[in-house]
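Bench notes, afternoon.
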Amino acid sequence: MEAAHNDLLQQIARLSETYANLADRLGQAAKQLQDSGLPPSDSLLQEVATYSRNFATLQKQALELNKSAIAPGEIASLKDIQNLVQTAAASEGKAEIRDAALKVLDRVLAIAHREQSDFAPLQSVHARARELQRAISESTPTQLHSDAESLVSGKHPVAAVLALVEQQDKLDDEQWVFLEETVSAAFGKQIAVAISRGKLTIAEMAKAGPAKVEPAFKPAPEPKISAEPLPEVIIIPSGNVAPKQVAVAPQIQILESPAPSVPMHEVIIVPSVEVPQSLQTTGSGNIVFGAPREIQQVPVEGALGIKVLVHIQGIGDRTFGAQEYAGTKGQGRRVEGFQINIDPPIPGLNVEYMAHVEGVGDTPWIGAGELAGFRGQAKRIEGFAVRLNGPQADKYDVFYSAHIQNIGDTEVSSNGEYCGTRGKALRIEGIKVWIAPSANSQTATPVGLKVLAHIQGIGDRTFSDREYAGTKAQGRRVEGFQIKIEPPVPGLNLEYMAHVEGVGDTAWISEGELAGFRGKAKRIEGFAARLTGPQADKYDVFYTAHIQNVGDTQVTANGQYCGTRGKGLRVEGMTVWVEPKM
């Protein structure tokens, strides 16, 4: 299209040059006509007619090329046509930059973490990319968004993330340092470290990546739809009316749950669809509604029965049970209010809660059965907290989490801790609440572990708790490791750190993340592990290492360092386990 604009501008220039003195000759002819009645010559009239035709042709081409709603009468001069074409050319150039910027953002949003679907630093990058995507998409061709050009040129921090992920092997040291500093300044050091370790990849390339060792968090299978044509759908009325048959629509939709007060009159039965057993249903038992499929539900032993009512934008009131996801995901619907009841009631145990509401701020703490938030005022809940009171309160803990706009699922909060945001205008789209016996009132359950060791010349190998993870007498260094509690134990989490050759002590990282590196030939020289969470005081974590020229270390526990520093000695294997305290 740029060539078409240039060609049209050249035609305008030629028309101006060809008829440069036409206005002077017409002026002279007009004077002669006025003074002596001498009419213009036939050649002059022919020239004027030709100019008019050429002008009309250029006018039409300019309007078509610009796809403008401007009427031909508004383009009254050759100068008007030239301005229109130049404006269209400039707008098209901006449109090309706009489209290129949107393609960059699409690639950024395709970046995924190989091991953690909820990696917070990457979520902040995605949130910024979505904001830019929305703003650039809404910008007009004549008002190019200020960040579009920097995205295309690669100078924007979001584009720098993409460059580091896509072009790792192609960047020289100077380029890498510049991009890494840009990313760290904008989104924190953690995401730069994740990129350098090869943890981030473009989602469409993830199939070729190494298998993830996360059996405790495998996504539930998608519903399988038969490849054969669906037969007719049978609609069964609630009364004694004969069944009626209707033609099936090619697109099948899962219906929303009706309001609790409205009876269920008809059930739509769709053959040839297998529903996975792992999908959770609401208390009504007749629909699948809002249950998060990416994380398997972990039952809590001894959990109390509760009822959580949420008022959802555009849907109204819905009621859910303990540990059920109460809300929606991927629909952009805000939770506008909620209330919680212990059901059945426990004598001496009460629940109370508060909320941070758009335009209102923090509400007071209110009792069970009261609505935190509003109905009919279109105000989003941005955060909340829940706590227990009464003579029995010290025997229980209340846990809760939320799904927040542009952030995703939060960590689990408990016993009055605030969960959500303030001052960021981010809606809560769903919540999950449950009550369980406190750590002081229940017996510790056995804890299993999965230990992955990345071994020199071998690669990743997975071991169980108390199993030796590594090699002996082969001179092979452990270059990285990750530990995970499996199956998960509610209220119990694991953290660990490592001393890495040429790097030193790493930060404490969460279970499932890799301590150390793959593909950089750096030895682990020592490590430590510790437990966190409400249940941590009920357990001890123990570990030992086999170290070059030293042999097996003494058993170490609960965050104490195991290994050497500054001696250049590799860890060749490790053993880790968790035991309930006596």
